[in-house]
Amino acid sequence: MASIRLLMKKRKVPHTFVIVFFIIVIAAVLTWIIPPGKYVTEQVGDETVMTFYYADQLPEAIGDNEFHAEPQTWQVFSAFYKGFVKQGNIIVFILIIGGAFWIMNKSKAIDMGIMSFLKFTKRLERWKLMRKIGVNNVVIILIMLLFSLFGSVFGMSEETIAFALIIIPLAVSMGYNSIVGLCMVYVAAHIGFSGAMLNPFTIGIAQGIAGIPLFTGIGYRAVCWAILTVVGIIFVLWYANKVKKNPQSSIMYEDDAYWRKSAEVKEEELERYTPRKAWWVFAFLTAVLIVFSVLYPMTTLKIGNNETTLPLLPIGTALFVLLSIITLRKTVHYFVLTLLFATVYFLVVGVLGYEWYIMEIASLFLVLGIASGLAVDKSASDIAKLFLEGMGDILSAAVIVGLAGGIVIILQDGGIIDTILYGLSKSMGNMGKIASAEIMYAIQTLINIVIPSGSAKAAITMPIMAPFSDLIGISRQATVVAFQFGDGFTNMITPTSGVLMAALGVARIPWEKWVRFIWKFILVLVVLGALLLIPTVTMKLAGF
Fold this sequence. Notes:
mainly alpha, two-stranded antiparallel sheet
């Protein structure tokens, strides 16, 4: 056994950058093998259909003005630049998040919060039931349920990048590794994303294109979400307990030295104090929140087809004021944590009530970073320096996102994405209903490797799949389920996913090690998705 481990150490795995660049080269080679083509929207009678044309068959107007494709050669180098441009929003988001959290981390608030939380969990062990279940197991279950629900209801994805920086240190302090921490946030959210009940970015768009009432069929999708989430939690609990029993056996043991070092802060090293400037930060933020509460006294939350109007901003403001007064009287560290909780609260309100996306979320976390720095009595220059340090510390995560974006750029510029989709769709042929539904699912899964964006994939594939389902006697609702399963699972492994590469970057987990860990679980999810798809064809389900 020792000789095998020694051999593995001697055999160096290429750097993640090298692996992704190699995939870009493979994509370029494919553009010389696969002929370019394009799906074109055409009007046939009263119906709008998607028709596929190879490049040399395209109608002249389209071929001249809208479609330019050529085999890729030197473009494997320019793809890096274009990938940065394509993924610019995620890259900027990562850099801002990195800078903001670096400022907050320097306040030692996260360390204080983790220590207080661990003390609280120790006290819970006095209860026999909690000792039997395991307090840490309960923590993992609750956090995963929360993020899975977020992924299912409003499509949480990019937001997990920020939360990973909070949960990973907690996981390491609990005796686990960075992979467990990332699973608690990122994997949980994407399991929910895959089994979405109300996700407007996937279910909403797919059902709209398929021409079926929005968010119908929610009953069976809720069952799918519950099954997938339970399976995910069981898997993470199994792996977490395996790591805790033998931490050095973890594939991330050496890489996690960074997180273990950051978790070594001792309680006696944390001085409890509250500078006067913290009270001024509290007063200013309170005034701002009061103004917004007056301007927006009621917020309409949109969850599926349901709308609920509540005074969420005034409620959030009142909670912030109350908690801030309590925490400021103890130590500024707890006040900074209050700022973090307020940020999370207003993030959820903003996403569900005001359609916030990456720009607004990044701005919110930037305010968190600046406010945290001012609260612990840092000068403006000190805050600026810390922000730049944080951006530098997380720069590799931003770079890998740009590099991974180059894979899709090569496939797009080579004009072969639609050709691949056309070739896969032809494979459905004259098969039975179950087989056809499973092939749809397989196609969506494979396409997701090169088009990880759920919204973009829905726009491309649903106009093709929905009419085809009518011809073979499958409900369009079943087609939507095939789409959502195919859209979600492989997002957690494909290097073309900017969110995955960003999450791995901030977690400091090499992509190749992540693949070694996650591939068996992804395979289980893919098989489970295939099984859950069968009832949509064989049973009479509400909304199908």
